[in-house]
Amino acid sequence: MRIYTRGGDKGKTSLIGGQRRGKHDVRVEAYGSVDEAGAFIGLAMSYLNPARDEDILEVLAGVQQRLWDVGADLAAPPGAKYTPRTPDDAASNLEPIIDGFKAEADTIKKFVMRGGNSGAAALHVACTVVRRAERRMVALMEDEEISPANLKYVNRLSDLLFVLARAVNARDQKPERTYDAGGDVFRE
Fold it and tell me: Does residue 125 contact residue 64 with C-beta atoms inside 8 Å?
């Protein structure tokens, strides 16, 4: 595999199907943000305790795989000969995982200040990057069609990363700080 192709030297890149777009194109921004989210998840994984957090690392490894599918789906513009890789149930498959890890942390009523130990803080950063990717995908939807499964998955993924960050802090017995000026915002 050649690392450099020189194809992007003039500010354009190829989508699946061969169409060329500017590197600032909303579609390129969307799949680029998904790629960035996967990188931040990898960073978060490097901070986790392999012995204690093996279950979380396994979940995150699967998430990284799925994000490559989402990115590929986003790199295929309408009309490209391409079969989407993200299944319709990708988001709903995250829900029991979210519920399981949510049970590890105390119930919250206020907004949580992002932080804690290094692994939790990195998961919180990954969560915000996923939310940015979601915003980019919504912007793309204003101009072009995308698979609804991708948007649902990314939306649910931010919930998962938030819950995983809280679980990591709970496992480390790291107390969470809440937003003091806000009242109760969450209810079961």
Answer: no
